[in-house]
Design brief:
3 domains; S16 Ribosomal Protein, Chain: A; 11 helices; alpha+beta; 311 residues
Length: 311
């Protein structure tokens, strides 16, 4: 019955663990075995191998044949070289002491290589860890710098927007403000002045209605007309372009006074020609006196002058 030294698989999926056994070559891989010689764990670096050296050498001397993987493991642990030295001792090529001495020298050398490999692996691992930490630190510092830059940029944009809003408010302060109290006061004063003129005209009209119809009634009416013209002229002293509304109001007032005074003496033209002549002279004198002071009055009240001359 041929015997083989081979590996028997154990462990879970993705994590294999092997037994080193001496088993019948006709048995299944994970079936019956004759002797368990050791274990092999390939999940570590370097791999972990536990081997019973004396039993393994004994099965080799009996003629057991190791598989390729099992032979590699036996060579790694020194079982194959021990079997070779024992063969030299049997042939008389060397003594047992010399064989043991050579085996111990080989074992020390092998242990030194294994230790050097472990140290190299630990150094590589420490370097990789230090590099990984340095990379993580660099990434974290970069994130902090980017965050600080983003905050600074947002603050700068906010300050720029506030500055632009302040500049706009300085350039156009009237957009956000209503009319000043001074403007409101001047407007109210103008309204009151116009109302006062209207009341004065009404009072004059009521006084003229109470008087009797006489030839002398036309003269005071015309004098009142000239006075109204003089009062209305200073409101628009040659500034027609600046306040056309006040000029129109003055013209309307003059026309109203003339219309009110005209029907009071409907028969004076036929009965009192002397009174009419004297009235025209007085009107002309009043016009000559008012012409140098208010040159714009002639332009503003042409209808009033024409009606006075006709009368």
């Amino acid at each position: 019955m041929p015997v083989k030294i081979r590996l028997q698989r154990h462990g879970k999926k993705g994590k294999p663990f092997y037994w080193i056994v001496a088993a019948d070559s006709r048995a299944k891989r994970d079936g019956r075995y004759l002797k368990k010689l050791g274990t092999y764990n390939p999940n570590t670096n370097p791999a972990t191998i536990n081997l019973n050296l004396e039993d393994t050498v004994a099965w080799l001397e009996k003629g057991a044949q190791p598989t390729d993987t099992a032979r590699t493991l036996l060579s790694y642990k020194g079982a194959m070289i021990r079997h070779h030295l024992n063969g030299g001792v049997k042939k008389g090529a060397l003594t047992q002491e010399e064989a043991d001495k050579k085996f111990m020298a080989w074992l020390e050398e092998k242990q030194a290589k294994i230790q050097a490999k472990k140290e190299g692996l630990s150094k590589d691992e420490s370097k990789a860890k230090a590099k990984r930490l340095a990379d993580e630190k660099a990434v974290s510092e970069k994130r902090l710098i980017d965050a600080a830059a983003a905050i600074a940029e947002a603050e700068a944009a906010k300050n720029d927007s506030e500055t632009s809003n302040d500049e706009v408010n300085i350039e156009n302060p009237a957009d956000n403000e209503s009319a000043t109290p001074e403007e409101e006061k001047s407007t109210s004063e103008e309204i009151k002045a116009s109302e006062g003129d209207v009341e004065e005209i009404k009072s004059e009209k009521e006084a003229s209605e109470g008087d009797e119809l006489a030839p002398e009634a036309k003269v005071p009416a015309e004098e009142k007309t000239s006075e109204v013209e003089e009062k209305s002229v200073p409101v628009t002293p040659t500034t027609e372009e600046n306040n056309p509304d006040s000029e129109a109001i003055a013209e309307e007032k003059v026309l109203e006074v003339e219309e009110e005074s005209a029907p009071e003496t409907p028969t004076t033209e036929e009965t009192t020609p002397d009174a009419e002549a004297t009235t025209e002279e007085k009107v002309l004198e009043a016009e000559e006196e008012s012409t140098p002071e208010t040159p714009a009055a002639e332009e503003t009240t042409p209808d009033a002058e024409a009606t006075v001359e006709e009368k």
